[in-house]
Amino acid sequence: MHDANASHLDLQTIAKTIMEQRGFEPDFPAAVSDQLAKLRQNPPQIAAGGDVRDLRNLLWSSIDNDTSRDLDQIEVAERAPNGDVKVMIGIADVDAFVPKQTPIDQHAATETTTVYTGVRNFPMLPEELSTGITSLLDGQDRFAIVIEFVIDSSGAVTSAELYRALVRNQAQLQYNSLGAWLEGAGEAPAKVQQSKELQEQLKLQDEVAQRLKGQRQQHGALNLQTDEVHPLVLNEQVVDIVKQQKNRATELIEDFMVAANGVVARKLENVSSLRRIVRTPERWDRIVQLAAGKGASLPAEPDSKALNDFLIRQKAADPDHFADLSLAVIKLIGPGEYVLEKAGETAPGHFGLAVQDYTHATAPNRRFADVVTQRLIKATITGQKNPYSDDELTAIAANCTQKEDAARKVEREMSKRLAAIAMQHRIGEAFDAIVTGVTDHGTFVRVLQPHVEGLLIQGHGLDVGDKLRAKLVSVNVEKGYIDFARA
Fold first, then answer.
1. Rounded CA gap, 94 and 63, in Å?
2. CATH code of domain 424-487
3. Is 431 exposed, middle or buried (0-12, 13-18, 19+ CB in 10 A)?
4. Cβ–Cβ < 8 Å for 160, 94
5. Are 412 and 481 in contact (CB under 8 A)?
């Protein structure tokens, strides 16, 4: 694996093999190519009229990763004379190009999600769509579903509306550069520098996002810090693992998307729909133990507000180690899942967000559940019959949950291989680490700098959240094994 090109090619092959082992079909079937060919010959005419409003004149912008091309959402905000702010989120109208039960839709229903492996993306939709005609790219006229809501001074949503529109992204921006500017730590991106109106627009969006965050945290939304890691590749060689932290731009989008998904869920209360839930933690007792170790007391029964108050205090008291605590809490809470919520009934809520009504509607280029929700929105706003039966929605929810779990495993297996390449020259070094899992297969730890996970040899007696010094003793790039021992 020392030859750069061989490493790159091998990793791509390994990624595809792991995808197949986890139940994915990474190659699109021939019927998808046939449907694409017909779309090229006879594309839907992108024009306003009827129930499609023309909002191309608004100062829409997108904020995403530096390399993202599958752009799902754009945003714009307007301040009212009374201080309230109207927020509009434009969501890519994938359904306009991919009708239900067509070959592209059937393949997306099977895969359910785009999988990002670090060396290759496996898109749910053909990239001709997801990074092309259904992506809200800079300067292009696009169909969108608009989620509009009004925020008052306290951060509460006071009214909301859903409708179709024709939109045009005026500024394609990136998290890192925009976040630095919003935090006063860097210059504005070029497009932002050139437009005073855009500067004011983005500052207004940031202000509203902070209102939304404050409102959610008052209700107990968990203040967790998740540090994503990505491979640093130079000349097709993985040379390091780097950490991407949250900033004001990532938080802006997160707060807007949480609000938008909540609006959609409430608008679909009278029809059967999909809900995104995170159940009450089964291992709350261990979370209580972790808090006690920090000198804090949590209730015996799960309480997201009490947990969040504790997290906020800990972040202020010990910001350097807050990511460690967050990681342990995330592991103990467990992953989310999709469920059917029938009309008039109430599904379990989302413990981490401290909301009762939540769905996924804002990433249809990357998640099939969002495409389904998009069709439910269209049927609702036009007064048509629900395009899905309860049995269909139940099956979709189960498959989306299963494939999301499989995608996490694919990404984790590939991240281990990438980390093994980056760490192979550091055998013998000792690191600060935290226990992230205790299973029948062994005890797993994550090194804090760089964020790399591996197996701890002879880790008996440890539990999630425990800290230790761990020495790197071996790596296996082909299998993605990284083994530590207590230092």
1. 19
2. 2.40.50.140
3. buried
4. no
5. no
What is the residue extent of each domain of the chain?
A: 4-278+335-418, 424-487
Q: Which alpha helices (DSSP H) does 224-367 contain, by range?
A: 248-267, 284-293, 304-317, 322-333
**pLDDT band at residue 7, thresholds of 50, 70 and 90?**
very low
Beta-bridged to residue 457, according to DSSP, are: 485
243 neighbors 225 (Cβ within 8 angstroms): no
pTM score above 0.85: yes
Sign of the alpha-carbon torsion through 292, 296, 299, 302: negative
**Residue 255's closest CA among 135, 370, 89?**
89
Indicate whether 270 pLDDT > 90.
yes
pLDDT in tens, 111-152: 999 999 988 899 999 999 999 999 999 999 999 999 999 999
Q: How far apart are CA 464 and CA 283, in angstroms?
A: 10
Strand pairing class (481-486; 451-457): parallel
Rounded Cα–Cα distance for residues 244 and 306 (Å) = 28
Query: For 177-262, where are the E strands, in sequence order?
Result: 228-234, 237-244
Helices 248-267 and 368-382 meet at what angle, rounded to 10? 50
Q: Where are the alpha helices (DSSP H) in 136-218?
A: 175-182, 190-193, 196-218
Contact 370, 261 (CB under 8 A): no
14 by DSSP, 3-state: which?
helix
